Automatic annotation (TrEMBL):
InterPro entries: ABC1_TM_dom (IPR011527), ABC1_TM_sf (IPR036640), Type_1_exporter (IPR039421). Residues 33-207 form the ABC transmembrane type-1 domain. It comes from Limosilactobacillus panis DSM 6035. One of its GO terms (molecular function) is ABC-type oligopeptide transporter activity. Keywords: Membrane, Transmembrane, Transmembrane helix. This is Multidrug resistance ABC superfamily ATP binding cassette transporter, membrane protein. The lineage of its organism: Bacteria, Bacillati, Bacillota, Bacilli, Lactobacillales. The chain crosses the membrane at residues 28-48, 87-107, 165-186, 192-211.
């Protein structure tokens, strides 16, 4: 007789399990590589787009300042000397970059979705064969809910990991490095200020006292 629900032990062999999962990806390794390259290209395009767009802001600023100087010098101007043709070219380039960024991201998601579904299909086939080879006492010591959870929930989690988490880890790393490099190229001094202020802001938000319930900032207590 069972005295209570059996405690499910958590997996302890992370890296061996990861290697086995990677082995299931080998038949589609070229597809995974293409998806990773597309994801990296999408991130790079989305990072450099604001840099290029900043050039348009600089052109507008320089044109406005040049026009004000000419007005103060006594010249009559009908319009400010802003290079709108160059601004239009920059706008077209930025739109193209964002379009390709979204397109690459969409294509890599389709590729990883197809690969993940094929991997999960093979995993379920192997699990089905394994369930047919285990002795009968295995079913006496494992609940049906546990077995069904392995077949359904765990497989769905693996599919979600392959579709999103795997690519997201790579894109997040590329985004962090790319944004850092972009900030340093714009102004290394402001970058250092940001790196100092961000931890201080997190500390203030984390350790700031929470006002009592029903008391809002700026209100007066009776």
């Amino acid at each position: 007789m069972h005295r209570g629900p059996r405690k499910i032990s958590k997996p302890k062999h992370f890296w061996p399990t990861t290697k086995r999962l990677v082995a299931y990806l080998r038949p589609w390794k070229y597809g995974v590589i293409i998806a990773i390259l597309l994801a990296i290209a999408s991130v790079i395009f989305s990072i450099i787009s604001p840099k290029i767009l900043g050039e348009a802001t600089t052109i507008i600023y320089d044109g406005v300042m040049k026009g004000y100087r000419e007005i103060h010098a006594g010249h009559h101007l009908t319009s400010l000397p802003i290079d709108f043709h160059r601004i239009f070219e920059i706008g077209v380039i930025v739109v193209i970059l964002y379009v390709f960024s979204g397109l690459f991201s969409f294509v890599q998601q389709i590729i990883m979705t197809r690969i993940s579904q094929k991997v999960v299909y093979n995993l379920r086939q192997d699990l089905k064969e394994k369930m047919g080879r285990v002795p009968v006492k295995f079913y006496d010591t494992h609940s049906n809910g546990d077995i069904m959870s392995r077949m359904v929930n765990d497989m769905d989690n693996i599919a979600g990991t392959l579709q999103q988490s795997l690519i997201q880890i790579i894109t997040s790393s590329i985004t962090f490095v790319g944004v850092l490099v972009l900030m340093l190229t714009i102004s290394w001094k402001l970058t250092l200020v940001a790196f100092v202020m961000i931890p201080l802001s997190l500390m203030v938000v984390t350790f700031a006292p929470i006002p009592p319930s029903g008391y809002s900032v700026g209100s007066r207590r009776p």
